[in-house]
Amino acid sequence: MSKHFVKNNSESIKDIFRKKQVYKIIARSDRPNLVDFTFAEKALYGRVNRRYQPMVANESRLAMISLSSGTIKTIKAYNFVVDAFHDLQNKFRQKAASNQIDTKDEFLADLTPIAGYVDPKVLYRNYKAAYVTGMGNVIKNKNLKFADFGEFVTVMLPYIHNTLKTKVFTFQAFLKSKECPINVSGLVIEIGTKIKSNDDEFKYNKFYKSNNWDFFLNACNTYGFMVDCNMPNRLVADISSPAMWEKMTQYDEQINSPDAFLLGCYDTTSAADFDDFKKFLYDIYNENKRTKILTTTLVNNDNTRSITRKVKTYSYQNFLIDYSDEYFFKLYSKIRFMEEESFFSEAEQRSLTQNILQFMGVDRTMALNVFEIILNKTFDYNGSLSYITNRLNSLRR
User: Fold this and answer.
1) Contacts of 138 (CB under 8 A, 6+ apart)
2) For residue 317, what are the contacts with CB-CB under 8 A and spacing of at least 6?
3) Phi, psi angles (nearest 5°) of residue 224
């Protein structure tokens, strides 16, 4: 057990808290590119756009390309990020050749990439598979019964609601959750070795105490990279830096600013998420329904009788016929309001849902985008800078 830093989760909560505070002090720096990606809006960097809508990488303008590395695993990032990283590598090699840095340093002498872009759709697909299994366990352990999809929703919605703080449901919420790493942005390259998130002692000894640490931070800043103070082997492209703009424009002259990059190289996912939401619910129902259920009914006010009911089976096509877009959007909006830390009253939620439903009759995709724009305002997030500021002001009053 380390005296000053957390080594693993086996320590007491009190010791972990105390040692985390020590690490926060160590990780503080006047260098602007040593960044805490757990604080405020930086927690969503590369995963939401200017309107705080969740987004996914789109390679139609700038492609993801592989980094050359000694591993079999393919490591990818946006092409301009890879170019900037190669420049950074070359700078380290030049300094090493002239003995201007410690060449014996384990991780900060020759920068070796070990991880990059991760496809969020693949992550979510795996997440959903585990969720289906988890819901199946709840249904089995609680002996929950339902004879059709409508009954299933009535029975399962309270359990979905109760778990949303730790287990989100929709892809929109997944993209902003802790289950989804910043690597999905295509802006991340990790170097050296995989680090356990709680092993602060390792981070301190291998990175912060490195003879090359100051040079590493300076060089990263020169080439447009931020360094994650909590995972110091993680380099994140700063799309606001002139160095990164220059790299972007070499591939597309119109991608010459952060806004142009966000608009041209990412897609919002609200319409696709709504369709996936329906299929997700269908899969949970279909995978966990029984053939028959035995229920008890009251007869003549004082007697009961057991009745065997056949559980309805749907093809996906018939499922969508039996339950309309209006039915699903009411359910979708209810879950989205639950997932978000919003300040909408119940009356406001009903009004917004009804207005979006009317808009869906005119332009379904636009209506779903508008819903997410309204829902995803920055002040809705516990942990956003504006939330923290408003909370501090309220406490002072």
Assistant:
1) 144, 156, 159
2) none
3) 90, 25
Distance from C-alpha of 244 to C-alpha of 54, rounded to nearest angstrom: 22
* Cβ within 8 Å of residue 379, ≥6 positions away: 343, 386, 387, 390
Domain spans of the chain, in order of start: 13-118+181-256, 120-178+270-386
Residue 170 is given by DSSP the state S
- Say which residues have a Cβ less than 8 Å from residue 82's Cβ, sequence separation at least 6: 65, 66, 67, 76, 189
- Could you count the other beta carbons within 10 Å of the beta carbon of residue 70? 7
What are the phi and psi torsion angles at 162 (to 5°)?
Answer: -65, -20
**Per CATH, is 13-118+181-256 categorized as 3.30.1380?**
yes
- Whether residue 380 is predicted with pLDDT greater than 50 in this model: the reply is no
Q: What is the pLDDT of residue 227?
A: 97
What values do phi and psi take at 167, rounded to 5?
-130, 95
Give pLDDT, residue 293.
Answer: 82
**Mean pLDDT, rounded, of the chain:** 87
